[in-house]
Amino acid sequence: MNAPSFSTNKNTAFSKSLKSRVNNYFKTNNLSKNANSSMVAKTILMLCLFFGPLIAINTGLISSVWLLFALYIISGLGMSGIGMGIMHDAIHGSYSKDKKLNNVLGLTFNLIGANASVWKIQHNVLHHTYPNVNGADDDINPPFFLRFSPNTKWHWTHKFQFIYVWFFYGISTILWVTAKDFVRITRYKNMGFIDKKSEYRKELVSIAGWKILYFMYALILPLIMVPLSWWIILLAFISMHLVTGFLVSTVFQIAHIIPDTDFPLPDDENKIEGDWYRHQLLTTSNFSPRSKIFSWLIGGLNYQVEHHLFPNICHVHYRNISKIVEKTAREYGIPYHVKKTFVGAIWDHIKMLKMLGNKKPAFSST
Which residue intervals define the domain Fatty acid desaturase in the entry (predicted)? Predict the structure, then answer.
């Protein structure tokens, strides 16, 4: 991969001041940057929400169609919670100082049908380093019928993407647990992230093994145990993923794909203007900052700015350090994007999708 670089060193006056103030907050309040009791409670809750309904389904005692659907949907909420509130921090290494514990909790991603190794490359390396940079950020590299950046090729179908994108958000985790990880691990091998053929084969076997385990307890056993028609069970399983896919995709997308954020391109020397910290603020937006319960449920991902600046800090601290980040950004004349409500952020995302659906967008990106 011919990765772009940033034209300014990370150690700018802004970044030094920001890091100093945030570090001082934890030191002054004698706080750990990792998980607290609230995070532990959330971990237990989300694991129970996911596995509890599946255990009930696999007892074979569920004969009501509506109860089956309800249990799968509850499991979908738990799956979303694991993805946004447990594995996300663990794979970033911010859940605990103990690397082994982070690795173990990161494997909860494998238990819900995805893969931690692929996610580390896609999310930790590519997305977090180069948000909204076309050709580098894999989160804005969708199939041809979706356009998430003004710097990608326009197709006539994009005129309607603000309508049909929600269907693809809904089925995103179905694609994830079936084909996406295999496609991406192959692409990352070709990009140079995996050097040895033996390592690549090992990853393929690992991905396949975890997915077989997931499908065994999430679908195959219910097909055997539940005294209902196979197609009803399959639809209930799909409903679980529709809930998860819609929630996870929406939360992640509205933080970057909105009219306020930038979509910078590298210059002729393959450099992105400015420093890395400034880039995170220009390409990221918060939303619904006043909703404590909502923030707790979605793993603090409404504070995307803080997460991108400090992925090594557990999300339970984002609300408090957000005041420091915003104040420092304002002092140095750097935009601090935030939407008051979740609905407002979704509406802005829809507007952005409409704008990207135009062959000649009615906006410009720096």
Answer: 65-338
List C-alpha distances in Å: 148 to 168, 171, 349: 13, 17, 10
Q: Is the pLDDT of residue 195 over 90?
A: no
Distance CA 158, CA 140 (A): 14
Contact 270, 5 (CB under 8 A): yes
Is residue 30 included in any domain, yes or no? no
Q: Answer whether 275's CB lies under 8 Å from 6's CB.
A: yes
Cβ contacts of 115 within 8 Å, gap of 6 or more: 109, 181, 185, 206, 207, 210
Q: Which amino acid type is present at position 154? A: W
Q: Considering the domain boundaries, does residue 363 fall inside one?
A: no
* Angle between helical axes of 65-85 and 37-58 (0-180°, round to 10): 150
Residue 362 resides in a domain: no
Whether 1 shows a pLDDT value over 70: the answer reads no
Q: How many domains does the chain have?
A: 1
Quote the pLDDT of residue 119.
Answer: 97
Tokens of 328: 């420092």
**Secondary structure of residue 362 in the 3-state scheme:** coil
Range of the structural domain that residue 263 is part of: 5-23+37-356
Read off the pLDDT of each residue in 99-118 and give the average, rounded to a whole number: 97
Which distant-in-sequence residues (6+ apart) come within 8 Å of 337 by Cβ? Answer: 258, 260, 261, 281, 284, 285, 286, 305
Predicted confidence (pLDDT) per residue in 304-360, tens digit: 999 999 999 999 999 999 999 999 999 999 999 999 999 999 999 999 999 999 976
Query: Across residues 125-151, what is the average pLDDT?
Result: 95
